[in-house]
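Subgroup meeting minutes
Present: P.N., E.W., G.H.
Scribe: E.W.

1. P.N. recapped why we're keeping a running log of single-chain structure predictions: easier to compare across weeks, and new members can see raw inputs and outputs side by side.
2. G.H. added today's entry (129 aa).
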Amino acid sequence: MATRHGFARTSRVAEQIHRELADLIRFHVKDQRLATKLALVTLTAVEVTADYSHAKVFYTSLSAESESETIAEGLRRLAGYLRRELGHRISLHKIPELHFIYDESVARGTYLSQLIDEAIAADRKTGHD
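Output recorded in log:
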């Protein structure tokens, strides 16, 4: 039973970190050039280790692929600030170190959907339904 309770708490903490980080990134980044780029970032998930020492923060972006490294670097530079701000917003004995990871699942899903659409269009051209 303790394991289930621990998992539920870790899940709740991850969700709270997710909400707080989304708010911080959206409304509290002071560097306007970076804030403009981060406006197109969506946090897709947060995974927290059982001891709360690390959190993987998965994100995706609607910006051009050429901006992906700038966004990744911006998030890495902001990690300390975001961690400090999380410390003010949530009550945990230990605030996790943040690791930002680009979530490829959205892009992969879009690509697969495009392939399916192309296959359907090709079938229609050849008369197969």
